[in-house]
Design goal:
- It is a single chain.
- With about 250 residues, the protein is an alpha+beta fold.
- The chain has 2 domains: about 170 residues, Glutaredoxin, CATH 3.40.30.10; about 50 residues, no CATH class.
- It contains 9 helices and 5 strands; from the N terminus they run E-E-H-E-H-H-H-H-H-E-E-H-H-H.
- A 5-stranded mixed β-sheet has the order 1-3-2-4-5.
- The longest helix is centred in the last third of the chain and has 25 residues.
- The C terminus is likely disordered.
Length: about 250
């Protein structure tokens, strides 16, 4: 008897945020955990998250430069693995703090420090269970023109430099653009019964004299249109009566 394999849904790095999850401003970074520059940039991100608390959300995407940092790929996989248990950001900061010691065994110890108790954590790293997620981030980064780390985007717009001032400028610009967007008002369809539909049609066909706009409510429709409708109905009634043929009189034999 064949058993159906259990399907495990993996939380993708693009869906992991810190800050206000519903914020309209998204700060996004393509980086890796062995980079000294990325570690410094992480401190800038922390500062911005405090400064723009509730206004922005931050998303980290993996872009391991394996030709320079051979251990950055597995470190990225370890971060994704902890993200499955809601401990991504704890692991994220631990990895930067220990960027010079990212061996597989060390990654297992860091996961425990982050609060993960997955007994298969080491096996998942060895088997590259989350390798596709890291490679997916890498491919997306390349497609978006990323060549080095860190590379920042604010609401999809690339930030030219990685300084605090430049990233802050990008956030401020995004805030202005969001404020300029017109607010979309949700239109709720009006449901009318058959009587209301008829009255509305009559109101549109025979609007009240001098009216600029057709009546809006049922009460207004009846008040303004009823005299006109009655007059029209009377005409129709008179016309119908005059057109009625006379009854034939039977002649006696």
């Amino acid at each position: 008897m064949a058993f159906k394999k259990e399907v495990v849904e993996i939380i993708e790095p693009r869906d992991i945020f810190v800050g206000n999850a519903k914020a309209e401003i998204t700060l996004e970074e393509f980086g890796e955990y062995e980079s000294e520059v990325c570690a410094n940039a992480n401190e800038i991100v922390k500062k911005l998250l405090i400064e723009y608390d509730g206004v922005i959300r931050f998303n980290f995407r993996h872009f391991p430069l394996t030709n320079i940092h051979q251990r950055s790929l597995k470190a990225g996989e370890a971060a994704v693995a902890t993200g499955q248990e809601g401990k991504f950001w704890e692991m994220h900061n631990i990895l930067f703090a220990n960027r010079k010691n990212l061996g597989t065994t060390s990654l297992k110890l860091y996961s425990k420090e982050a609060g993960v108790n997955n007994k298969r954590f080491l096996d998942d790293l060895v088997n590259a269970t989350y390798g596709w997620q890291v490679q997916g981030d890498l491919r997306e980064g390349i497609n978006r023109g990323v060549k080095t780390v860190p590379t920042f985007f604010v609401n999809g717009e690339r930030v030219e430099k990685n300084t605090y001032e430049d990233i802050k400028k990008g956030i401020e610009e995004a805030i202005k653009n969001v404020k300029k967007k017109p607010k979309v008002t949700k239109v709720v369809p009006v449901v009318m019964d058959e009587e209301e539909v008829v009255e509305t049609k009559v109101a549109l066909k025979y609007p009240a004299k001098g009216a600029v706009k057709p009546p809006k409510t049922k009460k207004e429709i009846v008040k303004t249109v009823a005299p006109k409708v009655a007059k029209v109905a009377k005409k129709i009634e008179v016309k119908t009566a005059s057109a009625k043929p006379k009854a034939k009189v039977k002649q006696r034999a």
